[in-house]
Amino acid sequence: MGKDVKAFLKIKRQSCEYRGVSERVKDCNDVTIPRAHEQSLEQASRCMDCGTPFCHWACPLGSYSPEWNDLLSRGQLKRAFDLLSAANNLPEITGRLCPGLCEYACVLGINDDPVTVRENELAIIEYGFIQGLIKANPPRKRTGRKIAVIGSGPAGLSCAAQLNQTGHNVTVFEKDDKPGGLLRYGIPDFKLEKWLIDRRINLYRKEGVEFVTGKDIGVDIPAVKLLKDFDAIAICAGSRTPRDLNIEGRQLSGINFAIDYLIQANKHASGTAIADSEIIDAKSKKLVVIGGGDTGSDCVGTANRQGAANVVQIELLSKPPECRPPEYPWPKYPLILKTSSSHEEGVERLWQISTRKFIGRNGKLEKLSCIKVDIENKQGRTVINEIAGTQFEIEADMAVLALGFTGPVQAGLVRELELELDNRGNIKTGANFMASREKVFAAGDSRRGQSLVVWAIQEGRQAAQAIDEYLQG
Questions:
Q1: I need a labelling partner for 472 at 20 to 30 A (CA). Which of 144, 283, 369, 418 fits?
Q2: Is residue 233 located within the same domain as residue 365?
Q3: 220 and 251 belong to one structural domain
Q4: C-alpha angle 206/211/212, rounded to 5°?
Q5: What are phi and psi of 367, to 5 degrees?
Q6: pTM of this structure
Q7: Domain co-membership, 273 together with 387
Q8: Minimal CA–CA distance to 432: which of 444, 421, 441, 422?
Q9: Sign, CA torsion 115/116/122/123
Q10: How do residues 323-352 score in pLDDT, each as one tens digit?
Q11: Tens of pLDDT along 88-139?
């Protein structure tokens, strides 16, 4: 199939469409409507095959976006799939969850809407699965070396997949009952249905990767035992210590961490029984989500599906601009306002709001005492000042803290191995991803800090290369 090299002048960007709000809030299924195959080819033809592809530069994985976009536009999906998979172990995940750093660096985006790179990526990988192009490909030869990967999120899965393909024997340890890490329990089904994770995990199992679930290393199994039994250990346990808000009234019931709320909601959606005394449910409640990021957005969408009476999302920082600001010129990834599908379903969003205390009666939350703040940038440092006389209250039966994470859980694994931490509380490593203890490596959020899924995949791939070089030279 030929390609119209001037397609970018004739065809406008068409992003994914969502199911109607009144329909999608009644279930936890994917909010998007699958794109027609012909439309994917047409959208891929907008790629200009630039001489200097900044999309490739912006992607942590160095994805060959112009090349596989060109192949997709010509209908050569088998070759497009091979090229896409060469740089990305989980394109079906990034095609759904990545914020699209590549699209903000697209050359076409200088004076027009950028190419739908993320959705084109998703079209290629799903075509690969539907057409049976993706099959188990176990290594022909084994090295005899044994590697333990701790954590089965995107960093752990990509690290395990790469090491397994090299011929090493890989065992992935996951403390939860099913592999996937926060992909499974931290991301709502309406953004990532869990059969997608199972599909990939089953493929890895057929290729020889062993998964041991329900075992917390450093708690259920001593970490030193892994040091004895394996030739190397890769810690990909994520950044799972939530940032707290230690203010007056924090002890009141009805205040929960976002991660606890989302994990339980995901388990409930999968059919796991939750004890009545432990249920965190927003049904008929006035909910305040503290934190304006993606996790907070996921809490908004979850609450809408649970039937919350009212949802308010507050953020300490200023409302971002809707268009690229001067301080984030192309091809930088800009800090701009994001309105997710969850926001479209119903929420009141407030910016420059500081929560001063939680107010309640008989041990239960009733409202939040807040104040407006002024944000200043002084010599590159953000300074937050309360604005006198702007105190107000928000009624709330329930509050969710979506304030990010402070680092990996230190109790158990990290403490037992006496690993050195950096000044942010993450596992400190050298350039070769090795931690302060011989044979122990770290990758992903546990090393880098809370970050994007695409960075986690790249960290896992790089750590796998470092481990292989350590074992084989």
A1: 418
A2: no
A3: no
A4: 150
A5: -165, 165
A6: 0.96
A7: yes
A8: 441
A9: negative
A10: 999 989 999 999 999 999 999 999 999 999
A11: 999 999 999 999 999 999 999 999 999 999 999 999 999 999 999 999 999 9
